[in-house]
């Protein structure tokens, strides 16, 4: 479904991604793990078109994404929960969710809205509140809900569990699993590698802008180097 | 009675400021830039209508239409050429570019139409409204301006809060990157914003020149600054605020002249403005900036 | 501007011949910005004069007119720029404040200066080489008050002036002093500035409620046209009395001249005068710039001609240095009088467009003597009073 | 060279800034005494100095304090008129021109500082565009007040009024100092290039040293994140006031220097357009980049004169140049390009340095 | 809850005398908050909040998202003025004080969403934290008086020492805004420490860190407490960290305290499991 082929990304003169390639097949959950600054977010932003790669190619559903504007990529069925949530601070919770469904027709949106509210009752309680005053965790829920609103084929999550209460982390992972079994392909970036690998089919390990390891989740969970570096022991 | 007639004069001056301020706020609110060239787009609108009606002999409505169309196109083109390359630059850089555009428009107008003033014949043929046995009269232009002001304000409020593209504008104004991730075409959204803002500027230009019928290349600059002041006064980014701010500014100006001093009228307007901002630091209708810590 | 050896070899015959180098005349005025009307008009007028003079085949002029945006700093820059170019005579600057900044420079550089329209006494004060083509502000204020009083136009007078403008304020101050001595009752004095010259409702209402019969407008014609417009829509019909800055009001494109019906003004120039000189100038100007010239254009035109006559009289040639030219022109321009007012030395007597039919003379101080002409607007044209 | 390299990065950058100013001064002295310099350029030297000081001073407000000011020329105006009054009234008691200029500049600066204290009340409460409007308003108010200001001097001392010079009822032979809208007239020109150069050095000294001190860090911390700065005990009002007043004092001094270079100076000079002009210097030079601001001030002051050959297209050309320069220096594409070049230069340099011995 | 808990005596060797603040280590609590509450419009974000923290205690504040934890920090640091209740800091009532005053009294904090001085260098960020430890005036600064040189030198040394806690001294010249996320979080802690607090509030210090980084952070938090002999109150959703280093924990839900106690007690508390921990964690 998504094929990333040897991309290089620069921030000015900083070479952040050095020839990364990976693949996400339809129906899979794939996770990228790596230390701070390894380039995980940069990779996701490049896939969604917010950043340009200087070389290489990204293919989504058989089509090259080269030169395609980010908003068009969203229209093709790719959604991203960005790092740091980036909810629209001055819009209400409900308006934020509606923005998530921007590419869809208004009439189709109602069900999705119900669905999000059902999964996150807290958002329903706060639907009229201006998002900027939500607590960190509430904003994270909102960002997640907002991405779900576009009914994406491929959902990319950048550290969705960050700042969430343990009970919610579980919930979020449950939701990810559910979405996946309902047919959404998932590309997951997580610091909580343990959790991520427990639900993912496959994983890639990123180190300073390069893929250093790729294997199935089970293999990665057993890998000593991964254990030491990312699983805390 | 004089108080009342001063009030009416204030409203009529203020409604002109208000209508300019609406366009200002629109662009400011969405594109987050102080478009100091807005006043000069107004001037271009005035000249366009003048040319259509005087040189081409067109009627009032076609004249206005031409002005609106040309200004809309102008706004979009200027945005594409001058502001778009600076999307990710600091907002002050865009402000300076806008000043460059303002110089550009003024000097182009000077080359095309010369420095001689032109007198604009009013596009409003409505008779003045006479009250209290004719002691009080409200001119046709004032009536039209106030009414268009209210209509435009309402339309803009509805547009930005209810329509999809209006909401997209608000999203773009907050976080362009996140807006793109929602599938919003940031560039075309900003173009639409400029189109609307410049179209409004053309209307404002025609009304400004109808109320105060001289037209020069510099005609737009001072009303532009006053309207910017009005927009901030009302709470920058707030559409109803722009209207309230504009009208109040007009009233303060007239009352300041009438009851304090004509010599110091400019100083009075600005002093009142400072005092009001001290009491309400985010303008009259501006929302307090609630920063979540 | 250095004379070449070949030129100085036979200076005598370069005067009358078209073959000689042109005399370099610098001009300064606002060509862009809010005051561009005045600078452009003066420039255009001067250009026509230079063209005509050069066609005559005698003394040749070369005019270099620089923009100062009505800013003293830019004006001094323009002046220095012209000096680099080799300016020998300065025709400028057009507006008052910049002229006050430039004049001390031309004084110390000994470059003869004739300003078309900078009217404050401050312009010429203490500078023997700076002359004016226009009335000085005090003169206009005094003359206006006298005229109104003598002709008993009104006793209750209102004034609206631009208190951000040296010209307007200057006339107003002298007017109000003079009016007091003539028993005129100034019932309302209101002001505006360049920043607030849109709305005059308060000023007019004030004049109206004070019962003013005449409104004195020592201002330029652009705001004046707005005042007339707003007075009309208020249904307020006093007499309006203007000064030379008001000239030009009839020729604003699109202006409804019926609004100006009955407006009186003191002006040295009227574009619809029927004398040959004016007609020819107006026609040429119209052809060239498709505009009707205003007083500033006429001032610019007159400046060049006055310089031409003075140069001819003083036998000035292009190879003279600026200091010599300056001294000779001062000599040529100034009419000297003794304490009793008897003329002790005749200076230039100049018949121009802006002399209202009579001739002009210059005092040693640089001030011009010419008769102001009072006109009233009737059926869209000036009529002498 | 190696010594310079060893210095801390900011110290080195400051050193370069001082060096540029000093070299520019020496060069212009040489050129003008050798007679190579055109009148046009020579006439602009003092105003250039004044604008450079303005750019340095506004950089303190806009770049270092991070607040937009649209009325900086207002402080220049206060300084200009106070300075002129001081200089003219000391004409008899202080005969040395340079000394009189010095006193005028100091008093002009102090007075601008006092006025800035009045504006400071809103400054401490408002943010962003609201503050911009207040400064704009301040500039307009000052202009409007000077329009109505008449100051003269006779043997009884200074007379100040708001009606006209005559209304001051001074003795015969009195000097008019400020004549309403005409502004200050009859100024004896005291400003020199040397004075301007020294004032630039002084401003640089104040601003650069301030930035690299405890107070300067506090100001910049407030700019970057007010809440965080408060959380480590930094008082926003104290340090914003400090930056604002310092900036105003320098602007006032620049105003005096400017005014004392012309025989007349009118309030209209110090209007919104001049405030904007100075802002253009600051932004074009790179916000917060003092050296860039200086260079931009010099170039943009000379540019309109260089463009005189375009005659009526002059200001149009100026506008186009301004827009293009903004796009080329700040545009996303251009910036990427520049960074790429910088990056590869650094790379080459590292290689040629042979293993980063410099970093020690 | 923990005011009579024994002070820890484990002392780690200290880098130098300069960064050890002299402080009397008596047994009065550093902070006593009682009946604190605040409303936002109709929403009661925090209500009847009581907490006492001992001089050198590490305490945790946990609770579901939106429970009001960050708001408690904001109340303690006077970013918001409490609607009700009192806060005693070092036995002094902080009523009516502002952020700056309570910082000078001894509270420093980090922020949930990082708030660094992005355009300043790492070292300068720390020096801003040291601001009130220096005393030279603006004039001595501009005129470069001896006082300036002396205090700046000390500040430089102290900044590097403080950075060395997290082994960040090599980053001193970098722009803070360009640091990787984890380093930014650590820098915030260093900056807060620089203001010489006796109570350090950490808002989700481990957010965005992976397990190994988190365990490193845990060591460092303990080290800070031991070196500086200060109290630490932290908000965190990472239960390994909370249960690993906190001596006392306070659980908040919907603005109210639902439980207080030792990690063991909290982990076993059914209400906490229900509202916050979820089943799996509770079973562990
Ligand atoms: N806007 C930027 N400008 C310059 N460098 C950047 C920028 N954003 C990221 N970087 C650098 O690019 C590299 C990769 O960053 P990225 O954010 O992709 O890492 P990450 O793996 O998502 O880390 P984290 O776990 O902290 O989110 C880092 O070295 C980072 O410092
Ligand atoms: N300024 C404010 N205006 C209105 N509501 C606010 C404001 N600040 C916080 N709130 C609300 O108060 C509640 C508590 O917020 P707080 O940030 O303290 O939560 P938290 O416990 O820190 O949550 P998290 O773990 O998700 O960060 C939230 O519901 C939030 O929406
Ligand atoms: Mg990331
Ligand atoms: Mg929180």
List the helices and strands and how they pair.
The complex is a heteropentamer of chains A (233), B (293), C (385), D (360) and E (284).
Chain B: H1 2-31, H2 38-55, H3 60-83, H4 91-113, E1 118-119, E2 129-131, E3 136-138, H5 140-162, H6 164-174, H7 176-181, H8 186-211, E4 214-215, H9 221-234, H10 239-260, H11 265-279
Antiparallel strand pairs in B: 1-4, 2-3
Helix pairs in contact in B: 1-5, 1-8, 1-9, 1-10, 2-3, 2-4, 2-8, 2-9, 3-8, 5-6, 6-8, 9-10, 10-11
Chain C: H1 5-9, E1 23-29, H2 36-56, E2 61-67, H3 72-85, E3 89-92, H4 96-109, E4 112-115, H5 121-124, E5 130-132, H6 137-150, E6 156-162, H7 166-181, E7 185-192, H8 201-209, E8 214-217, H9 221-234, E9 239-242, E10 264-267, H10 276-289, H11 295-314, H12 322-333, E11 334-337, E12 343-345, E13 361-363, E14 368-369, E15 373-378, E16 381-384
Helix pairs in contact in C: 2-11, 3-4, 6-7, 11-12
Chain D: H1 2-6, H2 9-34, H3 39-64, H4 72-89, H5 97-125, H6 128-147, E1 150-154, E2 157-161, E3 175-179, H7 193-211, H8 214-224, H9 226-231, H10 236-259, H11 272-284, H12 290-306, H13 314-330, H14 332-353
Antiparallel strand pairs in D: 1-2, 1-3
Helix pairs in contact in D: 2-7, 3-7, 3-10, 3-11, 3-12, 4-5, 4-6, 4-10, 5-6, 5-10, 7-10, 8-10, 11-12, 13-14
Bound molecules: adenosine-5'-triphosphate (2 copies) and magnesium ion (MG) (2 copies).
One adenosine-5'-triphosphate sits between chains A (11, 14, 16, 34, 36-42, 83) and E (178, 180-181, 208).
Structure description:
The complex is a heteropentamer of chains A (233), B (293), C (385), D (360) and E (284). Chain A has helices at residues 40-47, 70-75, 93-100, 106-119, 121-125, 136-148, 166-181, 193-199, 217-222, 224-230, and strands spanning 2-11, 14-24, 29-34, 55-60, 63-64, 78-81, 154-158, 185-189, 202-207, 210-216. With 233 residues, chain A is an alpha/beta fold. Chain A has a single domain, classed as 3-Layer(aba) Sandwich (Rossmann fold). Chain B has 293 residues and is mostly helical. Chain B has a domain at 20-220. In chain B, 72% of the residues lie in helices and 3% in strands. In chain B, the strands form two sheets. Chain B has a two-stranded antiparallel sheet. In chain B, helix 2 (38-55) packs across helix 8 (186-211), helix 6 (164-174) crosses helix 8 and helix 9 (221-234) crosses helix 10. By secondary structure, chain D is mostly helical. Chain D has helices at 2-6, 9-34, 39-64, 72-89, 97-125, 128-147, 193-211, 214-224, 226-231, 236-259, 272-284, 290-306, 314-330, 332-353, and strands at residues 150-154, 157-161, 175-179. In chain D, a hairpin with a 2-residue loop joins strand 1 and strand 2 (157-161). In chain D, helix 5 (97-125) packs antiparallel against helix 10. Chain E is of the alpha/beta class and 284 residues long. Helices cover 38% and strands 21% of the residues of chain E. Chain E has ten helices and ten strands. In chain E, a hairpin with a 2-residue loop joins strand 1 (31-40) and strand 2 (43-53). In chain E, helix 3 packs parallel to helix 6, helix 5 crosses helix 6 (181-194) and helix 7 (211-228) runs parallel beside helix 8. Chains in contact: A-B, A-D, A-E, B-C, B-D, C-D, D-E. The interface between B and C is large, with 39 and 38 residues. One magnesium ion binds next to helix 1 of chain A.
